[in-house]
Amino acid sequence: MCIAVPLKVIELHEDEAIVCYKGVSIQVNMSLLEEVKLGDYVLVHAGCAIEKMDKIQGEKTKELFEQIFSIEDGEL
């Protein structure tokens, strides 16, 4: 099973983008998606963005993941 955390699009180039999560930026292939804008969130698998999320959906999902990660780390 794979779990994909939403990554925020911070730079757009032709078929590639730079995405960021918690200060870590990576370059991903965007050729599978259309109409992605700066600030959107994407789910990435094997270096390719496979799904686009709008800003609200991406931030809500990111918050849920952060809650899950903090429970696993014993912070709650």
Topology:
Elements: E1 7-12, E2 16-21, E3 24-29, E4 41-45, E5 48-53, H1 55-72
Antiparallel strand pairs: 1-2, 1-4, 2-3, 4-5
**Regions with pLDDT < 50 over 5+ consecutive residues?**
none
Could you tell me the CATH topology label. SH3 type barrels
- Order the strands across the largest sheet as they lie in space: 3-2-1-4-5
Oligomer: single chain
Number of helical regions? 1
What is the straight-line distance between the termini? Answer: 25 Å
What is the domain tally?
A: 1
The topology string of helices and strands comes to: EEEEEH
Broad shape = elongated
What proportion of the residues is helical, as a percent range? 10-25%
CATH architecture: Roll
Number of strands: 5
CATH class: Mainly Beta
Largest pleated sheet? 5 strands, antiparallel
What's the gyration radius in Å?
13 Å
Query: Mean of the pLDDT scores?
Result: 89
The secondary-structure class comes to alpha+beta
